[in-house]
Write a structure and sequence with these properties.
The complex is a heterodimer of chains A (about 170) and B (about 170).
Chain A (H helix, E strand, L loop, with lengths): L1 H35 L6 H29 L7 H20 L1 H20 L3 H45 L5
Chain B lengths: L1 H28 L4 H16 L9 H20 L17 H5 L2 H16 L2 H11 L4 H8 L3 H20 L2
Classes of the chains: A mainly alpha (about 170), B mainly alpha (about 170).
Chain lengths: ~170, ~170
């Protein structure tokens, strides 16, 4: 009993810490670029800052939506309902990972490079920074696509198999 | 504070009334070291989900739901290989009951365990609940299937068992 309590407390602490950290980072970034936006002279830098504000808020929002849905306790559902909800949840996560280039990488990459191009006086710095951020973006997309393919897709397939096995003889 | 006490009382009640039955589910969905982890995971999920328990439902049926859902999810997380009919050391799977049994009873238990482990995950769940003396209605509540579907499924499983082991 005490062991279970301790594990639950530890899990809750970790989740809260992760949520707070990610949200704080996103909001801090959005806040900073929103603050600096009217102070920028360069239209390029303004466009970059604007994209970073919207992008950061979008990331925070998407992660929160996924997390809220994920944290809802479903373990007490009837097996059939549980499998269906779990499959839908995994589908959502797969979709999120497959489109990571669009909602995560693209806004950061475009925003940061436009911002840098607008505020920097050194073309060399921009020329060095661009391929670095591109490589970071490509790596992020690769890692997420691989996770969707190797971790989540097999889970999805197995849930689907269980659901088909369950419904083979007729469900309510 | 009283909510916490209520939760704790219910949890104790689950342990008292379903503790042994939860162990049977654990034995069927995990092996070796995984069994202890799965058992803990099930208890964790029961504890966590107790906040959503409505007293209209039967606590035992509710606990079965949580246990089976957790067991199926747990297997997905930890292993992609099918549950073997043998233990890692090559021998037949050993459960607590099998270890405690003697002679032909022990053999029968091992035979039954082997048969259950060879079933698909859903058939295994249905058959386990049937072996635990749950009514068709209760099994239907746990699985989300109709009572007639449960009846048909259990008859099919029993027929398979008879053909495999009794008509040898």
């Amino acid at each position: 009993m005490a062991d279970i309590r301790a594990r639950m407390d530890e899990l809750s602490r970790k989740l809260v810490a992760r949520d707070v950290l990610e949200t704080a980072a996103g909001l801090l970034g959005a806040g900073f670029f929103a603050w600096i936006w009217p102070r920028l002279d360069s239209p390029l830098a303004r466009a970059g800052a604007g994209i970073l504000v919207v992008g950061s808020l979008l990331i925070v929002l998407l992660l929160h939506l996924t997390r809220v849905l994920r944290s809802r306790c479903r373990a007490h559902f009837a097996l059939r309902e549980f499998l269906r909800v779990e499959r839908r949840r995994v589908d959502d996560q797969i979709r999120l990972l497959r489109w990571v280039a669009l909602w995560y990488v693209a806004p950061i990459l475009i925003g940061v490079n436009l911002f840098l191009a607008g505020v920097s006086h050194s073309r060399l710095l921009v020329a060095i920074y661009l391929p670095l951020t591109l490589a970071f973006g490509a790596w992020t997309v690769f890692v997420n696509l691989r996770a969707a393919r190797t971790d989540l897709q097999p889970l999805r397939d197995e849930l689907d198999r269980c659901l088909r096995e369950l419904e083979a003889n007729g469900a309510k | 504070m009283s909510q916490d006490r209520n939760r704790e009382e219910r949890f104790q009640e689950v342990l008292r009334s379903a503790g042994r039955r939860l162990t049977a589910i654990v034995r069927s969905y995990a092996r070796g070291e995984e069994r202890r982890d799965l058992h803990q995971e099930i208890l964790l999920q029961i504890w966590r989900s107790l906040g959503t328990f409505e007293s209209r439902a039967s606590l035992l049926t509710w606990a079965y739901r949580v246990a089976l859902n957790t067991a199926i999810t747990y297997r997905r997380k930890t292993s992609t290989s099918p549950l073997l009919t043998g233990s890692p050391d090559g021998g037949p799977a050993r459960g607590v009951a099998a270890e405690e049994g003697h002679g032909s009873t022990r053999d029968e238990i091992l035979l039954l365990e082997e048969f259950i482990e060879g079933l698909g995950k859903i058939d295994r769940a249905v058959f386990l609940l049937y072996l635990e003396d749950l009514s068709y209605k209760e099994v239907a509540e746990v699985t989300g299937l109709t009572e007639s579907a449960i009846g048909a499924r259990i008859n099919r499983i029993k027929k398979t068992f008879t053909e495999r082991y009794l008509r040898g």
